[in-house]
């Protein structure tokens, strides 16, 4: 069944707010001891005293158990606002709770719904970050996830006069995000490897390693070695997030290390092309990125390449070009080897595509509609890829305010101008030159 039928016939029969990710999926930042059920809700703290007796407490926190209780009662946890906002578009809108539930068997969904929500659950899909080491400092990222962002704040001081950024993404170095350095005794990493060795490698369908840039972490290479040395012990699929801003030597080392693994997927990020992409994702060389993507697609060690697009105010001008290039790669390597997702940026809200003036937003939306119409019958494009694009088109048309507690548009516009003015100065970039179609509007802010 398609995504909408699955929502209506399966999820909504359990509860109108049920999401299997709250039971079976987690993202855990082991460098800081924070967790969440997916990349939309805000992260919360894992209590270390529980880990001494129960490593499963890395995932089964009190907050998640409360949210499970709410979902089974048909109520909507506040942290899951992203999906509720998508679903508010209309009865046919498909939010990420559908995609994040549809990867599990229907019997597993009913099993979760029948459990006591206070019980510990064995994870089926898990994303972990060992640390925040990263050579990029993307515009929508922040020091909590990138050591290069940390250097920006340390060298240049906090970004000034941002009045809508209630989370203070850009004002300090987020020391809490990296409580332990590589080689130090880290209770969260200790608990992960304890759980991994005892139970986790038996229950997980997929383990995904993110960062920072995970291929800059020694723990990631340790985990790859475990998979190499213990083939046959675990059926877990391994996935690696990477910005793929790797030298050829490092890329070839990775390819050599993972050769022979039964199932490896790579997730990389981009949402635009050329100079636009390099502006948004500071540190990126677009041609090198594309070359590395192609080289990985050519190797049999990689089962699937996922391109994750973070849809923000600056990517929409060249997003159709990127999608066209992705279709070309599908043509060369098959539709099953390369998959894209369009993930609408939630924070920082002043970088949301909804901040754009209506005429520019409408022009971008029309370009996406034209691209969709031109490719509607293309068999290389998956149903969920069409759905993601349709969702974005509807989002640009229906939703009027960004995901923010501060819906005051002048405040968001102030922060847009303040941030990119300082971003240009710190990074040696030029907004007006890079985005000429936004220049006139930008200069009036």
Outline the low-pLDDT stretches: none
Radius of gyration (Å): 21 Å
Distance between the termini: 47 Å
Structural class: alpha/beta
Helix content: 40-55%
The biggest beta sheet, please?
9 strands, mixed
Q: With helices defined by DSSP (H or I, 4 residues minimum), what is the helix count?
A: 19
Following the backbone from N to C, one meets helices and strands in this order, namely HHEEEHHHHHEHHEHEHEHHEHEHHHHH
**Number of DSSP-assigned strands:** 9
> Roughly what is the average pLDDT, rounded to an integer?
94
Question: Any overview of this molecule?
Answer:
- By secondary structure, the protein is α/β, with parallel strands linked by helices.
- The chain has a domain at 132-177 and 242-444.
- 45% of the residues lie in helices and 10% in strands.
- The protein contains 19 helices and nine strands.
- The protein is globular, with a radius of gyration of 21 Å.
- It starts with a helix and ends with a helix.
- The mean pLDDT is 94.
């Amino acid at each position: 069944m398609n995504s909408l039928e699955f929502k209506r016939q399966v999820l909504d029969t359990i509860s109108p707010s049920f999401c299997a990710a709250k039971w079976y999926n987690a993202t855990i930042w082991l460098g800081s001891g924070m967790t969440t059920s997916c990349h939309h809700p805000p992260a919360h703290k894992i209590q270390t005293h529980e880990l001494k007796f129960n490593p499963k407490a890395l995932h089964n926190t009190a907050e998640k158990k409360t949210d499970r209780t709410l979902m089974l009662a048909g109520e909507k946890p506040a942290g899951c606002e992203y999906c509720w906002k998508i679903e508010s578009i209309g009865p046919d809108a498909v939010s990420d709770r559908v995609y994040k539930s549809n990867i599990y068997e229907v019997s597993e969904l009913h099993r979760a719904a029948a459990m006591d929500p206070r019980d510990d659950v064995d994870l089926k899909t898990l994303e972990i970050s060992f640390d925040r080491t990263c050579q990029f400092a993307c515009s929508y990222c922040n020091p909590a996830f990138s050591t290069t962002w940390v250097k920006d704040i340390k060298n240049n001081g906090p970004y000034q006069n941002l009045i809508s950024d209630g989370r203070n993404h850009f004002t300090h170095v987020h020391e809490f995000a990296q409580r332990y350095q590589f080689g130090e005794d880290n209770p969260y990493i200790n608990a992960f490897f304890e759980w991994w060795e005892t139970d986790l490698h038996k229950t997980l369908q997929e383990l995904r390693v993110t960062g920072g840039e995970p291929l800059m972490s020694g723990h990631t290479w340790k985990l790859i070695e475990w998979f190499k040395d213990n083939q046959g012990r675990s059926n877990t699929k391994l996935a690696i997030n990477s910005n793929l801003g790797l030298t050829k030597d490092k890329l070839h080392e990775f390819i050599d290390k993972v050769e022979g693994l039964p199932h490896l997927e790579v997730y990389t990020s981009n949402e635009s092309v050329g100079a636009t992409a390099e502006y948004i994702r500071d540190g990126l060389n677009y041609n090198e990125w594309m070359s590395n993507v192609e080289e990985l697609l050519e190797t049999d060690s990689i089962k699937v390449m996922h391109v994750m697009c973070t849809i923000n105010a600056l990517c929409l001008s060249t997003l159709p070009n990127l999608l066209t290039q992705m279709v070309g790669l599908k043509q060369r390597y098959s539709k099953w080897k390369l998959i894209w997702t369009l993930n609408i940026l939630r924070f920082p809200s002043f970088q949301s595509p909804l901040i754009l003036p209506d005429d520019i937003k409408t022009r971008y939306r029309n370009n996406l509609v034209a691209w969709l119409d031109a490719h509607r019958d293309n068999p290389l494009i998956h149903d969920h890829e069409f759905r993601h694009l349709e969702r974005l088109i509807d989002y640009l048309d229906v939703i009027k305010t960004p995901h923010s507690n501060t819906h005051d548009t002048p405040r968001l516009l102030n922060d847009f101008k303040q941030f990119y003015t300082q971003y240009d100065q710190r990074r040696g970039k030029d907004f007006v030159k890079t985005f000429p179609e936004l220049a006139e509007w930008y200069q009036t802010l």
